[in-house]
Amino acid sequence: MSNIDIKMTINGQEIEAKADPRTLLIHFLREDQNITGPHIGCDTSHCGACTVDIDGKSVKSCTMFVGQANGSDITTIEGIAHPDGTLHAIQEAFRQNHGLQCGFCTPGMITRAYRLLKENPTPTETEIRYGISGNLCRCTGYQNIVKSIMAASQELSLQEAAE
Prior knowledge:
The chain folds into two domains: about 80 residues, Beta-grasp domain (Ubiquitin-like (UB roll)); about 70 residues, [2Fe-2S]-binding domain (DNA polymerase, domain 1, Orthogonal Bundle). The protein is globular and about 50 Å long. Helix 3 crosses helix 6. By secondary structure, it is α+β, with helices and mostly antiparallel strands. Strands 2-1-5-3-4 form a five-stranded mixed sheet.
């Protein structure tokens, strides 16, 4: 199959490229665009390390072909921080609350948590656990991940109230 023209917005930047439409999005991001935040974990869509935000939805980028993402708006862990480089509340909460250990699942976990808080700004612990259930962490036990998401929810609520 021949390459197709790809146009999409990644982390606020419009890109144009040529790619085999059957290339997995995770490989296009990492290998062609040098966006290495999303990780390749299991290649079977079970772990969620490759989670990105596409057109307002959490997607495991190992389950989507780049041709399917053509025309999309994609946010990866690199695009969640503020333009000046300061961390988003969810990233800062993970840092402050030890929501990571080895860090392998962290980009996908934070990206999923970012979307979860957009969908439900004040989730309960049960809603958080359900909301991140598609993302696996092999070393934290999830306690501090849940604590981090709860803290980010509170911080974002405070920021919104101040505006």
